[in-house]
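Suppose a colleague, Dr. K., hands you the sequence of a protein chain of 141 amino acids and asks what its three-dimensional shape might be. Before reaching for any lab equipment, you can write down a predicted structure in token form. Begin with the sequence itself:
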Amino acid sequence: MSRAATEALIFEYYRTFNQGDMDGFLSLLSDDVVHDINQGQREVGLTAFSRFMAHMNRCYREQLCEISIMSSADGTRAAAEFVVHGEYLETDEGLPEARGQIYRLPAGAFFQIRDGKIARVTNYYNLNDWLSQVGATQASA
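The predicted structure, expressed as tokens, is then:
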């Protein structure tokens, strides 16, 4: 894939996310997608990613803004930096109680592209920043 095609793929990934189009969003991923969860474990496969997104959409409402996408010249790797504008809707296990808290959080992601699909997603944000914004002072894990 070209650099431009890779950047268009990542743009579409975030566009479908922001629109809540989970079918379109998931269609951009390879069947064996590797998902490195921020400060968590690695999950493999479209089914696991879909389950993760269902959980996230139940607990959080998020829009990603100020998205900046970069990619390697050969189009096999990409990165994105963005700001998450979110609302904490339902208490996520092991985290503070949800009370509709609003948060704004800088974040980033790294991607591997294979055969026109996203084959790996590694997400990063500062958990302690998020915890302080939702009313906790330290991680409970």
